[in-house]
Every structure is written in C-alpha cells, then in structure tokens.
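tool=predict chain=A
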Amino acid sequence: MSDPLVLIAGGGIGGLSLALTLHQIGVPCRVYEAVRELKPLGVGINLQPNAVRELYDLGIGAEALDSVGVPAREWALVGLNGNDIYAEPRGTYAGYDWPQYAAHRGAFHMLMAQTFTDRAGPDALRLGHKVTGYRQDGAGVVALVEGPDGTVHEERGTLLIGADGIHSAIRAQMHPGQPPIHWGGAVMWRGTTRTKPIRTGSSFVGLGTHRHRMVIYPISYPDAEGYAMVNWIAEITLDPAQGWSRTGWFRQVGVEEAAAHFEGWTYDWLDVPGLIRGADVAYENPMIDRDPIPTWRDGAVALMGDAAHAMYPTGSNGASQAIVDARVIGARMLAHGVTPDALAAYDDALCGPISQVILRNRGAGPFGLLNLVDERCGGTFDDIDEVIPEAERRDFMAGYQKAAGFAREALNAAPRTIPSGATVAG
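tool=predict ok
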C-alpha cells in the first residue's frame, strides 16, 4: 500500500480530534463510528486551557466554542454549611493565554463532527460501523469492521487508533487479561436546568463532602432574562462491595430520585433540591474508570481517550486529555512518520504520566480538599484557614494542575504541539 491511511475506531470527541489533527498535517484517515446517527446527547463537560489551546490551533476558535458553551470564570469548593473552602479564577481570568470552556457535550461533539466532514468530506466518517478487532502483518494492520447490517468486513490501513471508549474492543484485544471496569461506590445523577447562574455567573462549584456532593456550572450564556442552561451533577457514595447491580451503566430516571438525597441543602444563594427538580430528566450512572495498563500500544495499533485512560470526572479533564492525546499523536507522526515508531513515542510520552492522573482522580482529584475538610472538621466550619491554611490549599491545587498538564506558566510558555503549517509530507 503506497499511501498511508490511519483507521480510527470511534467517532467521539477523541477520535474526531485525532481525525482533525491528521487532516491538518496531511495524513489521510477514516473514522468508524458505531452509532448510525449522531445526535447532541449528554450534558456538560469542561475543556481545560490545555485542550482549548489545541482546538484554537485546529481552527476551532472562540466564535465556534461560544456557540456550544461559555468560558469559565471561577472554580470553587464550598462546605456543607455554604462557606467557601477554596476559590480561584479559571482560564484567561487566571492568566492563561486560553480560556477554559464549560460546554454542552453533545453540541460540542456535533461541532467537531461537522467541522471534520466539512474539511475531509462525508465519506471520511463512516456511521453505523463498529471496529470489533484487528490483526497485524508486515503490510500494516487490518481492522475487522461490523457494518449496519451486522456483517463483518476487513479494512486495511497503515495504523489503527482505538478511540472507542471505556468499553473498547481494541483495548480488550490488546489487553485480554484486564480487570473489569472499576467502580468505587459513587453514583451520579446528571441533568440541566434553565435557571440563573450563581456566584460570578460562570462558576464551577463543588458543594458538600467527598461522599455527598453537588457540582454545578452553566454551559450557556445567559439569555435576555438572565437565565442560562446550568449543568448539575448530584453524587453520593454507596458500598462498592455490593457491586453495580442496576440495569446498564447509564439510564434515564426521574429527577425525584436525585433530589431526595439533597433535601435541606438550601442556602440564601442556592436551592439545591429546587435546582434538581427544575430539570426535565436526570441521567444516572456510576462513577467508573479502568485500572491503568502498562502500554497503550501494540505495534501499529494504539489507544487514546477513554479507551486508554478512562478516569473519574473529578478533575474535569477526561475530554481535555483525549484532545491532547490526538495532538501528541499528530506531533509524533511529524517526527517519525505514519509509523509504529510514532505510536511508540506517543505511548512513551503519555502512558505513564496519565496513568498517575487516573489514580489521582480516584483519590478525588482536586475535590480531595473536600476529603481533608471532612476529616478535620466534619465538613462544617466558620473559618477555613483554621481547618486548612491557605498555603496548603493552594499547594494542593497546584499539584493537581501540574499532574494533569495545565499548570499555567508551563502551558503558556510551551511551544505549539503542532507547528503552524507543518505536514508529514514536509
């Protein structure tokens, strides 16, 4: 085969970020996505400055991102009695060269898909096609693809990238002895409510304790009446020893199922039960991840995104890391060509460090401050400095930002991951 072709299993945020990157650097690719029709599903996600930087470099700038989300101004943790534990500005308000965006996941996904097909043509995104496995030979890699009618055919490429999520078939073949999906006991209900945003008007707020908390942030600009679409996550922790016994990993439920756990969480600035009951529907799912694996690469095949490093959403960096994965793969292809060596260099750069982020997020990630407050005072306090000194709080957050790859000074000073105008062909 004379011309390189990268096969991408999965057309989610990670797979489309890679597809856009490969198109940018002149590498032909084809995306296989299992669903037959893309729809703007899901609720809110956060795109950290390190990911927004890469989106800008892909030509997806502020105007496009403003159509699916809103720049975050503040990140805050609040105790059970409504008093602040920690607050800091975010994105450009914190001195980053790029904003942090809170966006509607489905709308952002549709934006990525439309941008890719506009640039590469509709045939580059094959809907209703699922990659179920692979084999390798001296000429490259063969993907086994199940089509809309259920028949399986073969597609040959130079490389195969598994961007097929936490239930990845590519990962299962690469690591057949991997443990099952890990559930630590946390159950989340997610929803969106049209209401007036709190605090700065664009604040990401974690409220409660590490075992019983709310996460709240707007994912749209306020309308003429001051109302925005506000994303919320209601979370409690159960006994993980019982295992996840409910039907499926993601299901639609009534809002009362979530609201019942937060009765009495009413403050002069926020009515939590009212916020939950203001949603049309809630979606229940366990907080799950996968144990780190020693490598994301098998010859001409590599994993990225949730297929490589599904992690608890406590750090709000799952989607951001998938975008960064894509850009690092592109950068390594610029250095090594469309070869297994490029995938090896990508694996060397990210597998070890991001595996540590998976484990850090199991320890509550940046929400670990809630753990400390709970341990030291039971979650209620008058003066947080008497519980956790300011310097300790700031050091804790700085450590997480460094591990997750968006420490401000390092990010602002770093050169572009993909130099402007660079292509694999020269």
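The first helix runs from residue 13 to 24. The two ends are 20 Å apart (CA to CA).
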